[in-house]
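Hi R.,

Here's the chain you asked about this morning:
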Amino acid sequence: MAVDGGRTRGGEEVRLLTKDGLAAAAIDLDREPEEVGGIPKSAGRSGASHPMTVNETVIALIRPKPDLDLVAGEPAEAVAAAQAAVDAPKGIGSTTSYATEVALPVKGTWKNPAIGSARADVVVIAPDDNVPLLLIEVDNCTEEAALIAAKFDKYARFFQRKDKDTDGIEKPMWRTRWSAPAWEGYERVHPPVLLVFHQVGKRSAKSQMERVADLTRHHWQGRWHREGGFHSYDGCIPIVATTLELLREHGPAGPAFWRFGRKKRQPLLDAIGNPRREAALARSRQAAREEEQRRAEWEAAEREALRPVCAECGRKFTDDRLEATDFRNWQNPESHPHLCEDCQSRAVVVEQQAEADERDRQEQEQEQEQEQEQEQEQEQEQEAERAAQKAGGWLSRFRT
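And here is the predicted structure, written out as tokens:
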């Protein structure tokens, strides 16, 4: 399960997990075996110094928060140190976000990489902390800068390797294992690599950074966009460097990271990102929004100038009225499309009253006609009676 891993500078014994030990750890951590990583490299040559530096790097990035209840009653300086750690900015991810000794096959498979493949000391996956993928190389200032720079040739070959994913679409091989959001526009930037130097060996960490930056320029140097005021890193590897001392002091949120090609140290997210490009894109989006707003205001003014007015009161039609009087939307045509809503309502009332008055008039005329007819009939009946009476008088005389 474990083998001798040497001793730390303080004399502590280190045990390294074997393949079986890593498999057992994967079960305890509820992770896939390939996500746990492999046996630390260089353990046989340099003892425990390299794997311990890897461990210290992970701890400095996570910045675990101590439980203040556990330091209650301890010396004041211990309590103050624990409180300072609690109050400090949070780190990146948790232990499950990190895998060590991860093979990056330039040929072969993930489980069986070909000779010449890269091998990352640490791979970080912490999307909740805006770090979808970060690869880390650790050096104790013992390796030559040229050897460190040569690793980036392997990284570049791995990043450029393509493979078909489960959806049948060919994409960069690293995307078949790890997900990361696509960059805006036409950016096709490779995942960032962080170099952490620990001043254990005789070489200067500062000179190591500068020398590696010079030797890897063709991998990280971007193209300047004068109009936008930013660099485009299409096809480049963002390479960031720091020291374990700076990382411990500032953490990921502090100015501890030097992006090759830039002048000042930055927080990690700024260093692995492209703030100038993001700012330029934000300005471009803002300008587009403002232009769209101006266009909308101009179109609104044009519509306002052409908006019809009421033929009765002269007021402009409301949007609802304008839509209601648009013959293209008519299912039941409006009765007074040239009037506003209020005037139409009054016009409808006037028409309804006029119709009612007309009905009353017609009814009165009908009643008068009926009365006249009745009077005429009565007069005719009376005349008939008088005529009958006269006729009866003459007959009586003849009988006499």
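One quick note: The first helix runs from residue 19 to 29.

Cheers,
M.
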